[in-house]
């Protein structure tokens, strides 16, 4: 398994663009907020560590991961260089998991196609709460950190080309 016992969230900021002049929007789902708050903290801490100014980080909450699509669309209108969409979808008893995951995946993909602002997909789609805990600041790192690094790289690409 790709992530078995590997923390994939380490980064070398000397290899990254400085984020001091970038504006970031972070849209956070309130479903499974223990997980999404951990993802947000990882993302926020990484952005600050890489030079971002706290005044240039806008955070909005939305009810669930499906609302990340609309929230990110509205965030794009606030002149940010990149948006990070943070959610945690955990399998329940029914197929609702499949539809939420597919819907938010396709919706965020569509925003990357139709808008000029990169939207980073930071939505955990896990079978269990433990899998989510492991990936939001646990033994397998923090996908929020990884999303922040992706946001910095894409913000730089957007400004450069
Ligand atoms: N079950 C989870 C949901 N479900 C709610 C949807 O995201 C959406 O808010 C609702 O269908 C109304 O449009 N959302 C999550 O983020 N995580 C879940 O595990
Ligand atoms: C991903 C979901 O919407 C899921 O948590 C809802 O649970 P259930 O499928 O048992 O209704």
Automatic annotation (TrEMBL):
Catalytic positions are 96 (proton donor)
Instruction: Give start-end of the signal peptide.
Output: none
What EC number(s) does its UniProt record assign?
2.5.1.78
Q: Which InterPro entries match?
A: LS (IPR034964), LS/RS (IPR002180), LS/RS_sf (IPR036467)
GO molecular function terms listed in the Swiss-Prot or TrEMBL record: 6,7-dimethyl-8-ribityllumazine synthase activity
Q: Supply the CDD domains for this chain.
A: Lumazine_synthase-I (cd09209)
- The entry's (2S)-2-hydroxy-3-oxobutyl phosphate-binding residues are 93-94, 135
Similarity annotation: Belongs to the DMRL synthase family.
Entry protein name: 6,7-dimethyl-8-ribityllumazine synthase
Q: What gene makes this protein?
A: ribH
């Amino acid at each position: 398994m790709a992530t078995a016992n590997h923390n994939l969230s380490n980064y070398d900021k000397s290899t990254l663009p400085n984020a001091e002049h970038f504006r970031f929007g972070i849209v956070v789902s309130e479903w499974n907020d223990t997980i999404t708050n951990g993802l947000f903290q990882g993302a926020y801490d990484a952005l600050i560590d890489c030079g971002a100014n706290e005044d240039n980080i806008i955070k909005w909450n939305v009810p669930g991961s499906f609302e990340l699509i609309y929230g990110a669309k509205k965030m794009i209108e606030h002149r940010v260089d990149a948006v990070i969409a943070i959610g945690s979808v955990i399998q329940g008893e029914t197929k609702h998991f499949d539809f939420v995951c597919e819907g938010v995946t396709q919706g965020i993909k569509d925003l990357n196609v139709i808008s000029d602002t990169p939207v980073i997909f930071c939505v955990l789609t896990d079978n269990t709460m433990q899998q989510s805990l492991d990936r939001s600041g646990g033994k397998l790192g923090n996908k929020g950190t990884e999303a922040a690094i992706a946001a910095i790289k894409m913000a730089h690409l957007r400004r450069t080309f």
